[in-house]
Amino acid sequence: MQPTAFCNINCDYCYLPHRNDKTVMPLETVGRAASFIFDARLNAPDFTIVWHAGEPLVVAPEWYRQAIALFDRVAPAGLAVPHAMQTNGMLIDDKWCDFFLETHMRVGVSLDGTARLHDARRKTRSGKGTHAQVMRGIDHLRRRGVPFHIICVVGKATLDAAEELMDFFNAEDIRHVGFNVEEIEGSVETSTLEAEGSDTAFRRFFAHVSERARAADPPILIREREDLLACLQSPAFGYFGYNSQNAPFGIVTVSSGGDLFTFSPELAGLKNEGFGDFCIGNLAEATPSGVLASPAFRAMWRDIDEGVSRCKASCAYFNLCMGGAPVNKLFENGTFNSTETMFCRLSHQAVADVVLAEIESNLAAAPKAAAFIAAAG
Questions:
Q1: Domain covering 27-233 in this structure, CATH number
Q2: Which residues are CB-contacts of 354 (< 8 A; sequence separation ≥ 6)?
């Protein structure tokens, strides 16, 4: 759910084209979104409402209280609907902490590490750094006991700063971190991670942060590592054919104007010569059957599905990523019907190689440790 496209800052790597638009989603649209989701029975067991895109905290807490009440009113009896919010953290105060605690909101804060790293890319509209203001917001969360996680964007400058980054997170008692690679999508046509040697440097970086995270007391949970381990431990490992970004309605995105999107949420608001604005309908008149029959949806699904099939036939990592992210395929390769991207090489392949090497090392050390203990005994 995109309550507004407006954002109060101007990050160098931001792809959102409408971040000057201060339109707020009408509550009537929220109600229509809830009816669309629940009438179509799209609420899977892990169903969550995520408020994001632009800066969600520029919309008042009272608006969200009414929006959440609308979802609760339409939800099936007995279903508790979880909500999450991704924010740049600059506007967090006690009023927002009251709201987060009251609604059990899952809170994610965008923070690229130390002031040196963060302020180089995440700036105010006048070009000033935002780190100090974000840390003030995080201090509010900590004082009030609001759980939160961090999303940190990794660019070329970050790859040589693993020690600096983990010293910072450890000193600030930040225990849940996700690393988003600097992507190519929409108006962002290049990434600093395209530089020669970045794949090797990212593997070195991720191995270092993973080692430091495990050694921390208490440990720092790295989202990519935890997600991979959960995937490997799942009884259904090897049977999944799609992920939430390339399965129809795995993710449903609703813009502030009520436009509907599926597949990669980043597609909302972008444009492409072949697929226009990626919109598959508007909540004012959309029905699930109408969306499924729409030429826009069918054209995207055809190409995305063919791309997933090509990944399955050619990629040794398929069971870990299940066919990749359509938005990255389109804006890196020029078509949904494609395979490997820079995004998947770093976010999936490199992560898998590092974590699997760690597991193999531990398995190799286990018999030696057992033999040493036996001999000592």
A1: 3.20.20.70
A2: 203, 206, 207, 210
